[in-house]
TrEMBL record:
CDD domains: PRTases_typeI
GO BP of this protein: GMP salvage; guanine salvage; hypoxanthine metabolic process; IMP salvage
Any one cellular-component term (Gene Ontology): cytosol
Keyword Glycosyltransferase applies: yes
Keywords, ordered alphabetically: Glycosyltransferase, Transferase
Protein name per UniProt: Hypoxanthine-guanine phosphoribosyltransferase
Amino acid sequence: MGITLEEAQRVMAEADLLYSAADIAHALDILAASITEALADKNPLVLCVMNGGVITAGHLLTRLNFPLEQDYLHATRYRGATSGGQTITWLHEPETSLAGRHVLLVDDLLDEGYTLREVARWCRERGAQTVSIAVLADKIHARRVDGIQADFPALPLVDRYVFGFGMDYKEYWRNANGIYAVKGM
Ligand SMILES: O=P(O)(O)OC[C@H]1O[C@H](OP(=O)(O)OP(=O)(O)O)[C@H](O)[C@@H]1O
Ligand SMILES: Nc1nc2[nH]cnc2c(=O)[nH]1
C-alpha cells in the first residue's frame, strides 16, 4: 500500500490545482456564516470525521464564534486506497454523549456518500436530535447513494480523485495547502 517518496513527489508535480488556499479560506468564511446562522443558538456538538476532516475542522472551528462542544470520530472506507468498498470501519467513537444534541459532522469530502450516511445514521441511533453535515468539498457525479447530502457544502468538486487539505493520496499530501486532482484520475 505504501508509496515511495519519489511517487509522492511526482504525483504533486503532475497534479492539477483545483482550489488554492485563498479559494478555500474564502469558501470557509461563507460556510462558517451559514453554520452560524443555523446553529449559533443550538449548543451544537461538532464532530470531526478523522482523518480527512481534521484540517477543515480546525480551520472551520476558528471561524465559529459561539458556544459549542467539539469531539471526533474515525470512520473510514478507503483506508489509504484510492477506491473503497461499501463497508465502513469504525476506528474511534466520540466520548461525548449524543443524546438530545444538535450534531454537526465536519469532513473533508462527500463523494459517494457511504461514509457520512453511515456516520449520520450512527449519530441518530445514539439519540442525536438533529444531524447536519458540513464538508469542504462536494463531489458532483451520479454515484451518490440515496439518503445523504451535505447541509453545508463549501466547494463543488469535479469527479476526479483529489488530495490536499486533509485528503490523502495513498496517505500522503493531506498537508497540501489546496485541493489538487491526481493526473489521470
Ligand atoms: O463519500 P465517500 O465515498 O464515502 O468518501 C468520502 C470519505 O472518504 C474519505 O475518508 P477515508 O475513508 O479515505 O478515510 P480517512 O479520512 O481516514 O482518509 C473522506 O475523508 C470521507 O470521509
Ligand atoms: N483523498 C480522497 N479520498 C476520497 N474518498 C473518496 N473520494 C476521495 C477522493 O477523491 N480523494
